[in-house]
Amino acid sequence: MAHPTRIAVTPGDGIGPEVMAEAIRCLEVLRAKHRLNLEWTRFPWPSHAWHQEHGVCWPQDALDQLREFDAILLGALGDPGPADDPERYLLPDSESLAPLLALRKGFDQWVCERPARLLKGARQYLADDRARDVDMLVIRENSEGEYVGQGGRLRKGTPDEVATQVEVFTYRATERIIRYGFEQARLRAEDRVRQSRTRTFQTHDGRVCESQVCLITKRNALGHWGDLYTEVFETVAREYPDVATHHELVDAACMKFVQSPWRFDVVVASNLQGDILTDLAAVLSGGMGVAPSCNLNPTDPTVPSMFEPTHGSAPDIAGQGIADPTAMLLTTARMLEWLARKDPALASAGRELFDAVAADLEQHGGPPRGTHDIGEAICKRLQP
Ligand code: IPM
Ligand code: MN
C-alpha cells in the first residue's frame, strides 16, 4: 500500500479543541466511507496548557516533528478563555501566537488564501441585495512584508525610547504572490464556466474578462513597496491578457468591500493589509464562524502546509459548546482538496465535505445550534 497521507492535528487553545473535535469526526466518517489512506496524529501543543506544564508553548524540536507530516490542521491559538475567569492561565499574545508565525515562516507558507463567499444560509450583514453574490478570494502575502519581525526598542522605558518595526518586500516574494493571484483567477474562471455561473469584469480599455485580479497597496503613502508591487503587477499581468486587472489603495478597498463587494474576484494584498482586509471579508461571507483560511507552500511539496480557520480562540465563548465549527470544516475541506496533489482520492472527499457543510448551512442558517449539533448534522449527511 502507498504511504498514507499524514495530518498533524493541533487543536490549540480556546474554541480550537471544540471545533477540531467536529473536524475529526467528519474526517473519520469520510475515511471509513471511502477507505481513504489517511492518518492523523494529535499534538497537545502549541497551547497554553502545554506552556502551563512545560514553561514553553511547544517543544524545541516542534518544527522537525511537524515537518514529517503532509499537512497541519490547526484549531486556534491565543487566550484560552473563559474570558470572565480572571484566574485563567494567560500568556501575552506575542508569546502564545509566536508558534503560528514560526510555522508560516518555518515552512515558507507564502500564500494565505482566504475565500469570502456568501454561502446560502449564511448571515448577510450588508443590506444591499447584491451582497448575496459576494464571492472573492483574498490572497495574502504570508512570508514577509510587515511581518518580518525586524526592528527593536532602543532606550526602552525612557522618554527617549525609539521603536522600529521594519517592513521588508522582496522582488522574489512579490512576483510569486502576484503570479499566484493570476493563476487562481484563471482557475476560478474555469470553475465558473464548468458550473455555468460565469462572471464578467471590465478592463480599463473596455474589454470584458471572465476573471479579475485586484492589487491592494498604499502606494500613495508607502511608495517604496507600493511601486515595486505595482510594477511587478503590470509585468506579470501582460502574461494573463484574459484576466482583468484593477488596483485599489487599501483604505479605498475597505470602503468598496462594504459598498460593492460583489465587484471583486481575486484580491492580492500584503501580509498586514491582507490580514486586516480578511477580517472584513469574513464578515461579508457571514462572519468569523464561517470563514476558512489556509497557509500554503505551493513550491516545496516536502514541507507541510497549514490549515486554520480565520477566527481565533474566541475566549468569550470558549468552553460553552456554542462555537460554530463551519469555518473549521470548510478549512478541513480545503485541506483535503490541497492534499489531493498527493492522493487524488482526497479531492472528492474534500468536495463532499464542502457540499455537506454548505447544505447544512443552507438548511439551518438562522437560529444558532451548538458546536456538536452542527458537527453531527454534517456527519449524518456524509454517512453512506
Ligand atoms: C490571522 C491572525 C494572526 C495574524 C495573528 C493571530 C498573529 O490575526 O491569522 O489573521 O495576524 O496573521
Ligand atoms: Mn487576522
Describe the structure.
By secondary structure, this protein is α/β, with parallel strands linked by helices. The protein contains twelve helices and 14 strands. It has a ten-stranded mixed beta sheet with strand order 2-1-3-14-13-4-5-12-10-11, sandwiched between helices. It has a two-stranded antiparallel sheet with strand order 6-7. Strands 8-9 form a two-stranded antiparallel sheet. Strand 8 and strand 9 form a beta hairpin. Helix 6 crosses helix 7 and helix 8 packs parallel to helix 9. The two termini are 24 Å apart. The model has no long low-confidence stretch (mean pLDDT 97). The site of 3-isopropylmalic acid has 3 residues, from loops.
Count of runs of 4 or more consecutive helical residues: 12
The geometry reads as globular
Proportion in helices: 40-55%
Order of helices and strands: EHEHHEHHEEEEHEEEHEHEHEEHHH
How big a fraction of the residues is strand?
A: 15-25%
Give the tally of β-strands: 14
Please compute the radius of gyration using only Cα atoms: 21 Å
Low-confidence stretches: none
Oligomerization: single chain
* Spatial strand arrangement across the major sheet: 2-1-3-14-13-4-5-12-10-11
Q: What is the rounded distance between the termini?
A: 24 Å
Bound compounds: 3-isopropylmalic acid, manganese (II) ion
Class derived from helix and strand content:
alpha/beta
Mean pLDDT equals 97
Give a brief rundown of this model.
The chain is an alpha/beta fold and about 375 residues long. Helix content is about 40%, strand content about 20%.
